[in-house]
Structures are given as C-alpha cells and as structure tokens.
Amino acid sequence: MNIDNIIDNIYPLPEKSKALLKENIYETTFPKAHVLFKVNRISSKIYFIRKGMVRAFANPGDEDITFWFGKEGDAVISMKNYVQNEKGYETIELLEPCDLYELNTEHLRKLFNEDIHIANWGRKFAEQELIKIEERLIFRQCRTALERYKELMLTDPEILQRVQLGHIASYLGMTQVSLSRIRSGLK
Fold this sequence. Notes:
The protein is of the alpha+beta class. It has helices at residues 3-10, 15-22, 79-84, 105-114, 116-141, 145-155, 157-162, 165-172, 176-185, and strands spanning 25-30, 35-37, 45-51, 54-58, 65-70, 75-76, 91-94, 98-104. A hairpin with a 6-residue loop joins β4 (54-58) and β5. The radius of gyration is 17 Å and the shape is elongated.
C-alpha cells in the first residue's frame, strides 16, 4: 500500500499539506523478527506498513500475550509513547520482512503547530486508533473463544494464513490446544 492511500484513509489532506507531511516520511525495511518497539522504552517513531505483518504483545509473566496484529496499511504505534511521550507497555515485532514508512513524532508535532489540516489529520489518526483499541477490548472481553475465532475468520482471514497458530491462540485468549479443537470442530 502506498503512503498516499494510507494518509487518505486516515483523513484526506489538501495537496500542499500532504506534500508537507510526506516530506517527513521515509521508507525503511526491516527483517523478520526485528523489534520496532520494546517494552519500557520511549520511541520517537510512528510506522505505517507498506508490506508485511507485525504483532504487538505484552509479557506479564511466563508467556507472551499477543493483543494486536498489523498488516499493509496499518499504523504501528505505541499510543503511550505518542500521546504522553512515556515508556510503552508493549513490544512490537515483525512477523515477516517489512517495508515501512517511518515518521518521527517530533516532526509530526511541529507540523501540527504549523498546519491546521495536518493537526486535524493527527486528531483523526488518534481517534481511529482509539476506536481500534476499543473494538479489540470488546472483541476479547465480550465473546466466547469460539465466537472470537469465527469473527477473526470473517473479519481478518488473512491473519489465519500469515501468522503462526501460537500467536493466534494468544491473541484469541486461549491455548493452542483449545484453538486446535475449535478449528477441528468447525471442519
């Protein structure tokens, strides 16, 4: 997905504002298993996925708990870093080699002060990310394991093809054995 489509999907900008924003966005590539964000660290970057798949996870005990997957067109961001400039609680790693667009948050904050259209774009970006977080919380807390799996099949079947089962099971809040039972029961 190209950067123009990603920007427009967040909030269409006048051409002058879009050009100004794009001047601060750089293309970068990282290999599979690269860690973009580490828990308890502050990052000054936002990424948008041109090509590839990532996951966000926490590790409160012995096992990783995956709570988000990102793919082409998605933003990769630690909201705590972005909003409060504080250490994040998540680790974000690449599940595939990724081509990314990189944006420095300090440059973005400067643009917010210089261009009202970019400031509105940033507000819409934060609002969209908040809605995604809310949807994930409801998805995880208000559905049974079977319902969560069926919804993932309907809304994001690509994850089932591109992500290893252990990460999917963690994301769905179940063991890999439980996930295997659910999958075999649906065949």
